[in-house]
């Protein structure tokens, strides 16, 4: 194929314990999937249908590390989430079969320019600039489901400079991973390489340049991000 410009590089996430990488096709994020987070954001935690937003694949930052503090925000927020990496796609996936589509899991942080999101909400505009900005999706190395199974319970937390800010349990997810996959596949054709961030517990809040974020999910992994001033 004769490209008229250089072909963009493919975003990829390391697979822990190997020299292999997982190519990222699309990033889907589930909104308000923990009841306590729904409450803190001013919403009813009843089991409404899930809703989704997306980030570009090149928003992925493999293994975190030092990152420049994002531009055009005075209110950058952290949201620690379970990352679900699909090894197989499909349409109208049966919930009972959905977990067989999962390659593995990781720890991610959905970084959000909350000030930009708040303005967009008030004006009934899309959230894209609040959610899909550069380097807005740090992700740990993936652990294959063949090694760790399919985590549906266990602590999930995030610390800033050693202090707990978010803390919950995967069993508090309103929509389980298999339900999320099945539901999303009714609207789009999922493919190998898609990743899904499956929601965040309560405690989301701001971070500033100089802060170190440490995210953890039991049995899945750890992720550290340090923000530096531009």
Automatic annotation (TrEMBL):
EC code: 3.7.1.20
Domain Fumarylacetoacetase-like C-terminal stretches: 27-224
Keywords in alphabetical order: Hydrolase, Metal-binding, Pyruvate
Top enzyme category: hydrolase
Metal-binding recorded as keyword: yes
GO molecular function: acetylpyruvate hydrolase activity; fumarylpyruvate hydrolase activity; metal ion binding
Pfam families attached to this UniProt entry: FAA_hydrolase
Keyword Metal-binding carried by entry: yes
Record-linked InterPro entries: Fumarylacetoacetase-like_C, Fumarylacetoacetase_C_sf
UniProt-recorded name of the protein: Fumarylpyruvate hydrolase
Originating organism: Pigmentiphaga litoralis
């Amino acid at each position: 194929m004769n490209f008229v410009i250089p072909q963009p590089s493919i975003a990829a996430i390391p697979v822990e314990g190997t020299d292999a990488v997982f190519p990222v096709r699309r990033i889907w994020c589930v909104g308000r999937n923990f009841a306590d987070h729904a409450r803190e954001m001013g919403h009813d935690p009843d089991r409404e249908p899930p809703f989704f937003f997306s980030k570009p694949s090149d928003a992925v930052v493999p293994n975190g590390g030092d990152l420049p503090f994002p531009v055009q925000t005075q209110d950058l927020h952290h949201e620690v989430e379970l990352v679900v990496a699909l090894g197989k796609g499909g349409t109208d996936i049966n919930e009972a079969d959905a977990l067989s589509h999962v390659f593995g899991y990781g720890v991610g942080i959905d970084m959000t320019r909350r000030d930009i999101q708040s303005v967009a909400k008030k004006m009934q505009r899309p959230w894209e600039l609040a959610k899909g900005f550069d380097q807005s999706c740090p992700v740990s190395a993936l652990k294959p489901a063949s090694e760790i199974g399919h985590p549906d319970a266990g602590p999930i937390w995030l610390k800033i400079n050693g202090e707990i800010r978010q803390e919950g349990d995967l069993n508090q997810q309103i929509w389980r991973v298999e339900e999320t996959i099945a539901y999303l596949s009714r609207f789009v054709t999922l493919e190998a390489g898609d990743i899904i961030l499956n929601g965040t517990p309560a405690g989301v809040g701001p971070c500033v340049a100089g802060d170190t974020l440490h995210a953890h999910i039991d049995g899945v992994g750890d992720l550290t991000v340090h923000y530096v001033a531009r």
